[in-house]
Amino acid sequence: MDVAIFSAKQYDRRFLTAANQSSFHKLAFLEPRLSQETVNLAAGSKAACAFVNDDISAPVLQVLSDLGVRLVALRCAGFNNVDLNAAARLGIVIARVPAYSPNAVAEHAVALMLTLNRKTHRAFNRIREGNFALDGLLGYNMAGKTVGVIGTGRIGLTAARILTGFGCRVIASDPAPNTDCVKLGVHYLPLDEVIGQADIITLHCPLTPETRHLINAGTIARMKPGIMLINTSRGAVIDTQAIIQGLKTGQIGQLGLDVYEEEADLFFEDLSERAIRDDLFARLITFPNVLITGHQGFFTAEAMSAIAATTIGNITAFETDGRPLHPVSVERLASHSGTASAT
Fold first, then answer.
1. Topology given in CATH for the domain delimited by 102-292
2. Distance (Å, whole) CA 211 – CA 207
3. Is 3.40.50.720 the CATH classification of the domain at 2-100+301-336?
């Protein structure tokens, strides 16, 4: 099958080519993101492969349909950027990668916690300048701290397992409690209680209408002063303006982000020779207690191999019997709405 792969980087080419060795699909690697301006690059393909920040809205899907594309294979778990109703109407099948490496994202979330707490990023720069002073680098023991995990799917469960290993008291919020978390000793509480009790909050929930701006001015006001907040889920789970205000007042003591509300115009690109035009993002990076990475939580060799294998598997299954291994439907969107779980 001819496949147009959008938002393709060198690493996508490497892992997808390796996964495709026994499947023999014709892969066309396209660097531009999928959008209304670039969608015609899929001409001649029966499938399009898209990533987390690609535009898979109704107008894009209409053009894909006109071009003869019958499958959109997402090489990510989330599908909030897809108009599933339009896809169903047009007869385009959507597939995704529901789970690749929960360890990759969970470990990255904990890495953000440890870096912010012990300030190793600041210490690294100081030592390179010959400054061995410890002033300003004071941290605290993770053992004994209360960590709130919001969303206890595969990633949230893995994060909870790591944090309990540190000796943290882990509390969680999720409409569907995970029995594996309970076995770890995780205590499930209402969201407001988790927000009010936690010293550290880590977000592992999907982006749905119910979770959009879940962290806002109201929820921030109910947190402990000086809270550490970590987000490796989806950017729009956090209200960026509210976060900036919380940082200015000191209500938020430390912030670690691997995702950002308007990341589509920033992440995965080298913008080092350009000015950052996003004023909110530019303000965020001025705070010394903010650590931002560019959506790299998933980026391990193991995760990339799993993503590529599942993506090629979806394409092969669709070519064989018209149904990918992991389809996404309108019914799936309905069942996904309202839950805090994430894969």
1. Rossmann fold (3.40.50)
2. 6
3. yes
Strand partners, 148: 171, 201
Two structure tokens written together for 287: 């705070």
Q: State the Cα–Cα distance between residues 152 and 100, nearest whole angstrom.
A: 16
Domain ranges of the chain: 2-100+301-336, 102-292
Of 207, 205, 209, 171, nearest in space to 190 by CA: 171
- Cβ 101 vs Cβ 77: under 8 Å: no
C-alpha distance across the termini of the chain, in Å: 29
- Are the C-beta atoms of residues 26 and 3 closer than 8 Å to each other? yes
Decide if 2-100+301-336 and 102-292 have a common fold. yes
pLDDT per residue of the chain (343 residues) written in tens, 0 to 9: 999 999 999 999 999 999 999 999 999 999 999 999 999 999 999 999 999 999 999 999 999 999 999 999 999 988 889 999 999 999 999 999 988 889 999 999 999 999 999 999 999 999 999 999 999 999 999 999 999 999 999 999 999 999 999 999 999 999 999 999 999 999 999 999 999 999 999 999 988 899 999 999 999 999 999 999 999 999 999 999 999 999 999 999 999 999 999 998 899 989 999 999 999 999 999 999 999 999 999 999 999 999 999 999 999 999 999 999 999 976 544 444 433 444 4
Annotated catalytic sites, by residue? Answer: 234, 263, 295
pTM: 0.91
